[in-house]
Each structure stands twice: as C-alpha cells, then as structure tokens.
TrEMBL record:
Keywords of this entry: Chlorophyll biosynthesis, NADP, Oxidoreductase, Photosynthesis
Family in the record: Belongs to the geranylgeranyl reductase family. ChlP subfamily.
Lineage start: Eukaryota, Viridiplantae, Streptophyta, Embryophyta, Tracheophyta
Pathway(s) of this molecule: Porphyrin-containing compound metabolism; chlorophyll biosynthesis; Cofactor biosynthesis; tocopherol biosynthesis
Function: Catalyzes the reduction of geranylgeranyl diphosphate to phytyl diphosphate, providing phytol for both tocopherol and chlorophyll synthesis.
InterPro entries from the UniProt entry: BchP_ChlP_pln/prok (IPR010253), FAD-bd (IPR002938), FAD/NAD-bd_sf (IPR036188), Geranylgeranyl_Rdtase_fam (IPR011777), Geranylgeranyl_Rdtase_pln/cyn (IPR011774), Geranylgeranyl_reductase (IPR050407)
Protein name: Geranylgeranyl diphosphate reductase, chloroplastic
Top-level enzyme category: oxidoreductase
One example GO MF annotation: geranylgeranyl diphosphate reductase activity
Gene3D superfamilies noted in UniProt: FAD/NAD(P)-binding domain
Catalytic activity: phytyl diphosphate + 3 NADP(+) = geranylgeranyl diphosphate + 3 NADPH + 3 H(+)
FAD-binding domain segment(s): 56-86
EC number: 1.3.1.83
Pfam families in UniProt: FAD_binding_3 (PF01494)
Length: 466
C-alpha cells in the first residue's frame, strides 16, 4: 500500500530469469534463449491428443494462488486436484486486498470484514499524515480473514468440479520419458484416518506449485532460493471504544525503531486489530521491532489482549527458476510479493489464474497434453504485465526506507493530494496510472525537495554522531 505510481517507470521490462530447458525427450521446440527472447520460433501444436480422459493437473497448496488456479482449471475442462494440508489454515497475514480483487474474483461482500477508507502514515517522529481523502465513495481497501478468503476460493473451485484433497504433499517422482505422468506422494487426512493420515499417490500430467514461501514443489524442481523478509504479527483484541477508532482506519508506521527496511502496521480485522512488522536485513531483531510497533500505537491499543502471535517469511523477489518441464510455480512459491508494500494476496490469486489459463489454452480445454512452452506463456505474460509494478516499488523502498530522514520525507510527500490519488489508484486498481504532466512536474520538484531536505538532515545527524 505504500506504493506511489511513478509513471516514468512504465515500459521497463525484465529479461526472464528462467533457465530454459525442457525435460529430456520433449519434442524439439526451439525455446528462446535469455538473450534472444524476442525471436521466438512459433511451432504448431505438437503435443498428442488425450483420449478417454482429460488433462490431469494437481495444484499443491490451497491459499489464494491455489484456489484461483484450481477454479480456472476446473472451469476450463481440466481434471483438477487441489491438495491442501490444512483446510482451516489461518495464514499469518494482514489480510489487506485491493478493490479490484473484489471485482475480478467476484468476491461476495460478506467475506470482507472491513472496508478501510482512511490510512494514517506515521513518520519516525510521529508526524501522522491522513491519506484517503481522494477516495471516491465506493472505493476502499478490503480487510479479510485468510481462513475465510482461502476457504471460499477453494470451495468455489470444488463446486465447479475440482477435487479438493486434505493432504500433505511429500514428494514427486519425475517422468522418465515424454508425456509420462508425474507421481505425487502425499499423506491424506480424513475422518477415518484421523491425525495420522494415510500415504497415497496421484498421477498427473502437470503440477502447479502454490504451496507458499516454503514450497516443496520449488525444492522438487530445484527452483533456487530467494531473499525473504520475516514478518511478525500479533492479533490484539482491544476494547470496543478503541476498536471504533480502527473501524475503517489502517495505520502504517515507519522508522528505524519499527523496521530498518519495512514498515509496522495496525490493520483492523473483524473484532480485533492485527499489529505487525517485518524485516529482511535484521531478522534476529524482529521481536524488538514488534515491541516498538506496539509501543508506537500504545495509546490506541491500551487494554488490548494478545489473542494470537504469528510469523512467516515473505519472499523478496522471484525464484531463479519458476518452471521445469510441466511443473510451474505461482504466488509466494514463485516469489510474487511486492517490495515496499509487502502485498501478495492479489498477485497470488492473479498468478494462479493466469497460469491455469495458459494450461487450459495450451491443452485445448484438457484435450491435449500440455507442454513446457505452454507454461512459459504464463511466465512471459506475468513478467510483461507486472514487472513495472515490482520495479517501481523496489525503487521506492530503496529511496524512502533507507533512513529516518528519508522516511520523514516520504511521509511529508504523502500529504500531497496528487501523491495520494496516484498511490490509491495504483494500489486499488493495480495499474501504473498515467498522471497529469503539470502535477507530475510538481510532484518531481516536491520529491526532490523532500529528499534534499532529508539528505541535509541526515548529514547533520551524521555530524552530531561523530
Ligand atoms: C505477517 C504477514 C502479513 C501479510 N500481510 C499481507 C497483506 O495485508 N496483504 C497482502 O496482499 N499480502 C500480505 N502478506 C503476503 C501474503 O500473505 C502472501 O503473499 C499470500 O498469502 C500468498 O498466497 P499463496 O497462495 O501464494 O501462498 P499461501 O497463502 O502461503 O498458501 C500456501 C498454501 O499451501 C499450503 N501448503 C504448503 N505446503 C504444503 C504441502 N506440502 N502440502 C499441501 N499443502 C501445502 C499451506 O497450508 C497454504 O494454505 C502478508 C504476509 C505475512 C507473512
């Protein structure tokens, strides 16, 4: 949410980091190399038709990425399996979603706990700037409980025809020849087996790894590691009069005390608030940062009772490899969380859907075997659509989260109505919004002014500490 649309970044484009390779006997389709990716040789469909059944695809993980993928696959005529280890999983998460997700994923309003229309951005010296004045009456940031959202998306996939399995994916046997199936090993839980579970296998033609930041599917395909932030969050039940204050308000705190490279937050949930922070660079100090976040918000959460403590990694960038043969990664497993804002729910659901669409299209609604290049279509479309967004937020994090004076400058900038409008429009609609040239110029001058002041202040502070 700390995103600011800088339209000048539009058009930047990353070369796909994938290692292009297909499993040994896959038919000779010339795949683009990293340096010559634009000269793509388009071959006709070479994969065989499937008879007597439809294409079988397993989705591992039933978070937003997995639920959205399974729904699209099932809708597209694919024999779909969704394996989720914990059907009542409550993913550690702030639960903030952009308005466009509600429409694009047809989410019913009763699964949205709160509609946030006001945000306070709070600087290291506790200067609070109200943002949100530019929102139109129908616009808001949705706050959801993940156990509710995830279950809703999974159930909807099941209603359309996906088979949802309560199971823990263990490992996968790779095909030894072309068009052979992947054999998945998993522990199946059901009322009969109780907690112990029962070892089972499942044969499928393709696999989508939607199993989050600690993805076993990523390990199975040697996808490589990514840098990650550790995020810590406490759910705090606060007295009703205090909850009133947070009814439609979220707070973001910046400062070295709450995080050296991220922000601390207070987000309203159905009957409590979620207070949290994160860091990449000083993971060992996360509890200290959490305490500082709680201290900064202390007057507003006084009398509160901690009802849940949770922590989880947040990926910092995509994995070096996101595709191998007929196996690909989506959501956190792929590494699709934005820097600066730490937002990943929408991108998880979107990537799950986009990946599934590529499979449906490539397999001609499940009638043909799918190939690596069909899955590559998803990755290329993804990178083309979202790379500018990731880049802008990466730059913003580097510029504005690097010192307390820079953060003061950042909060000062947030008071500008134009900045607010651009920020909210970019966040709510996930578009790098074209601006107005005059206001852009004013913004550039103000930004430079704020940064110069921040820099001068930092130099003075450095002198004082010598
Ligand atoms: C503290 C915190 C706060 C955050 N706040 C926000 C926020 O406010 N807004 C936002 O947009 N993003 C937020 N994020 C990021 C967001 O939570 C993730 O980006 C998002 O959950 C990614 O969805 P996913 O479906 O890819 O993975 P996940 O939501 O992690 O889902 C993965 C699923 O796979 C299952 N699974 C894992 N391994 C296996 C296995 N071996 N077998 C079977 N199932 C398995 C898990 O049980 C889980 O249900 C936050 C993250 C953290 C840690």
């Amino acid at each position: 949410m700390a995103s600011i649309a800088l339209k000048t970044f539009t058009g930047l484009r990353q070369a796909s980091p994938e290692n292009h390779h297909s499993i040994s006997l896959q038919k000779a389709v010339a795949l683009p190399s990293q340096t010559h990716r634009r000269i793509q040789i388009i071959a006709g469909k070479t994969s065989p038709k499937i008879t007597g059944r439809n294409l079988r695809v397993a989705v591992i993980g039933g978070g937003p990425a997995g639920g959205a993928a399974a729904e699209t696959l099932a809708k597209g005529g694919i024999e779909t399996y969704l394996i989720e280890r914990k059907l009542d999983n409550c993913k550690p998460c702030g639960g903030a979603i952009p308005l466009c997700m509600v429409g694009e994923f047809d989410l019913p309003l009763d699964i949205i706990d709160r509609k946030v229309t006001k945000m306070k951005m709070i600087s290291p010296s506790n200067v609070a700037v109200d943002i949100g004045q530019t929102l139109k009456p129908h616009e808001y940031i949705g706050m959801v409980r993940r156990e509710v959202l995830d279950a809703y998306l999974r159930d909807r996939a099941a209603d359309i025809g996906a088979t949802v399995i309560n199971g823990l994916f263990l490992k996968m046997d790779m095909p030894t020849s072309e068009n052979q199936p992947y054999v998945l090993h998993y522990t199946c839980y059901n009322a009969k087996t109780g907690g112990a579970g029962e070892k089972r296998t499942l044969e499928v033609d393709a696999v989508i790894g939607a199993d989050g930041a600690n993805s076993r599917i990523a390990k199975s395909i040697n996808a490589g590691d990514y840098e990650y932030a550790i995020a810590f969050q406490e759910r705090i039940k606060i007295p009703d009069d205090k909850m009133k204050y947070y009814e439609n308000l979220a707070e973001m705190y910046v400062g070295d005390d709450v995080s050296p490279d991220f922000y601390g937050w207070v987000f309203p949930k159905c009957d409590h608030v979620a207070v949290g922070t994160g860091t990449v660079t000083h993971k060992g100090d996360i509890k200290k940062f959490q305490l500082a976040t709680r201290l900064r918000a202390r007057d507003k959460i006084l009398g509160g009772k901690i009802i849940r403590v949770e922590a989880h990694p947040i990926p910092e960038h995509p994995r070096p490899r996101r595709l191998f043969g007929r196996v690909t990664l989506v959501g956190d497993a792929a590494g699709y969380v934005t820097k600066c804002s730490g937002e990943g729910i929408y991108f998880a659901a979107k990537s799950g859907r986009m990946c599934a669409e590529a499979i449906v299209e490539g397999s001609e609604n499940g009638k043909r075997m799918v190939e690596e290049r069909d899955l590559r279509n998803y990755l290329e479309k993804w990178d083309k659509t979202y790379w500018p967004t990731y880049k802008v937020l990466d730059v913003l994090q580097k510029v504005f989260y690097r010192s307390n004076p820079a953060r003061e400058a950042f909060v000062e900038m947030c008071a500008d109505e134009y900045v607010q409008k651009m920020t909210f429009d970019s966040y709510l609609y996930k578009k790098v919004v074209p601006g107005n040239p005059l206001d852009d110029l004013k913004l550039a001058v103000n930004t430079i002014g704020s940064l110069v002041r921040a820099n001068a202040l930092r130099k003075e502070m450095d002198k004082m500490s010598v």
